[in-house]
Amino acid sequence: MNTLDEVTVYIRENCSRSPTLADLNRYAKLILNTCPASGKGVHYWLFQAARLFHKKPFRLKAEKICELLESATANCGRALEPHEIPDAVSNSDEESLIPPHLTVKPRESRPRGLPPPKGEIIEEAIRRSKLTLRDLIDASPLGGTERFQPLDALERLFPEKPLLCLAWDKYRDCVAVRWNDPRITRRRPYPPLMIPSPLLGKKGRTRGGKLSARALSNVGKRKYLVIEWDKNGEGRPYTVDEQVRLIWFLANSRWIEEIVMVLFSGKASLHSWVKVDQLDEKEIWAICCFARELGADPQAFGKAQLIRTPGAVRPETGKQQTVYYMKGESHEDARD
C-alpha cells in the first residue's frame, strides 16, 4: 500500500469495533509510511493524515498527531514551515473547524425547496483553511492539468462505456453515444457538455411529449453529482483558492463518500464530481441541501442537467475545461 487512499480503505475494511493497541500502532505506521516526497503533495498529505488520526479508531489528541506528523515528514526532502503541521492538525478536525452553533446537518427528507446559503459557515470554512489550487493539483493521485483530454478523463469516469448524453450546445445537438464512439471522436471539437450519469436508451419522452436524448425519463441511476461555486451572497465571484477551500470542507464532511474529480469550467468556477451511485435520491438530495448551505450553485443539481465535459474546450472562451484533480485507477483496455 503506497498511498493514503489505499491505507484508508484497508483500515476501513479490516479494523474491528474494538481494535487492540497493536492494531492501532500498525495502522498508524501504515498511514505515516505514505508521506510523499517534497513536490508531490506533502502539504495536502498533512491535512489528510491528520484527519484520519482525529477520527475513529484513533481519536488522538492534537499534540500526539503533531508528534507523529513531524516524525513522518522528517525525511520528506524539505523543511516544513513552523505553522504547517499545527495548521493541518487544527484545520482537519471536523469538530473544531466550524463552531458547534454553526454546524451544518444534512436533511433527512426532500423539502419543498433548497435551503439558503449560510454565510457564517461559508466564511468560517474559507477562513480556517490555507489550501490553494496548487495543493489540489499536487494531491491528485493521477496527476492533473492539461494531460487529461476528454477520452483520458471519461475512460476513468465511465470505464464500462455506457450510453451518455453529449452535447455541443445546451439547447440543441444532444446525442446519446458511448464516449469512444468514432462518430464523436472523429468530429472536432469534442462535445463540451454532457450529463454525468448513464442513459437508459437513445431517447426518452420529455414532459412535453417530445423524444430527446436529454429527457429526464432517459437518465438512469445517478453516478455523479456535480457541485460548483459561482458567486457569494454579495454577488462577488469566489476566487479559485476560496473554491478549493470549500471543496476541501465538502470532501471532508461525513456525508460525502468520495470526490473523484475537480475540473475548471473554462470560465471561472471549479466543478467537483461527487460519486453517488451507491446512494438513493433522498441521500443525494441531502447532499444537495448541505452543498447549498455551503453556497454551492444549485443549477448543476438537476439529474438531466448538462455540465462541462472534462478536458474539452469551452466554445465561448476558447479555454480548456482542465482537470485539476483526478482520483481512480487507469483502465488501459477501456478504449479497445
Provide structural commentary:
This protein has three domains: 4-97, no CATH class; 119-143 and 221-326, Alpha-Beta Plaits; 160-218, no CATH class. The protein is 33% helix and 12% strand. It is built from twelve helices and twelve strands. The protein has helices spanning 4-14, 21-32, 42-54, 62-72, 84-91, 94-97, 119-128, 133-138, 150-157, 182-185, 240-251, 281-293, and strands at residues 164-167, 174-177, 193-194, 204-205, 211-212, 224-228, 259-264, 270-275, 307-308, 313-314, 319-320, 323-326. β4 (204-205) and β5 (211-212) form a beta hairpin. The longest helix has 13 residues, at 42-54. The relative contact order is 0.14.
What structural category characterises the helix and strand content?
A: alpha+beta
Global mean pLDDT: 84
Largest sheet: 4 strands, antiparallel
Oligomeric form: single chain
Number of H- or I-type helical stretches: 12
Question: How much beta, percentage-wise?
Answer: 5-15%
The CATH topology of the largest domain is Alpha-Beta Plaits
Spatial strand order of the main sheet: 2-1-3-9
| Count of structural domains | 3
Q: In CATH, what is the homologous superfamily of the largest domain?
A: RepB DNA-primase, N-terminal domain
Distance between the termini: 29 Å
CATH class annotation of the largest domain: Alpha Beta
Tell me the series of helices and strands, N- to C-terminal.
Answer: HHHHHHHHHEEHEEEEHEEHEEEE
CATH A-level architecture of the largest domain: 2-Layer Sandwich
The rough form would be described as globular
